[in-house]
Write a structure and sequence with these properties.
- Helix content is 42%, strand content 22%.
- The protein is α/β, with parallel strands linked by helices.
- It has a single domain, classed as STAS domain (Transcription Regulator spoIIAA, 2-Layer Sandwich), CATH 3.30.750.
- The protein has a five-stranded mixed β-sheet.
- Helix 1 links the parallel strand 2 and strand 3.
């Protein structure tokens, strides 16, 4: 696999769009961006072609940090390759995963109002 960069864009408050692979060599931008979000966060993974084991570990670590502080971290736009990896590693049961960013926004908005 090529050494592609990961770009993390803050679409709006609480929404991070990842563009590029989430791998051992690209963890730093992800970790920095996730730390800067104060509330709940949606990770838009629709432009993430693949995730390696280090990337999975980083997702789990971020999820754990959010969960411990009463915040939510959800995933949206997960492609088939990443979805299969989450399934094989049984992590699909850890994360709330939504097909689209709109679905994730609606779910977080609904839970905040409940």
């Amino acid at each position: 696999m090529r050494n592609e960069p990961l770009v993390v864009e803050q679409v709006e408050e609480g929404i991070l769009r990842l563009v590029g692979p989430l791998t051992m060599s690209t963890l730093s931008p992800f970790e920095n961006a996730v730390r800067r979000v104060d509330g709940n966060v949606i990770l838009d993974l629709s432009h993430v072609p693949y995730v390696d084991s280090a990337g999975l570990g980083c997702l789990v670590s971020a999820y754990t940090s959010y969960h411990k502080t009463g915040r939510s971290m959800v995933l949206s736009g997960v492609n088939e390759r990443v979805s299969k990896l989450l399934e094989i590693t049984r992590l699909e049961s850890l994360f709330l995963i939504f097909p689209t960013l709109g679905d994730a926004l609606q779910a977080l908005t609904s839970s905040a109002q409940a």
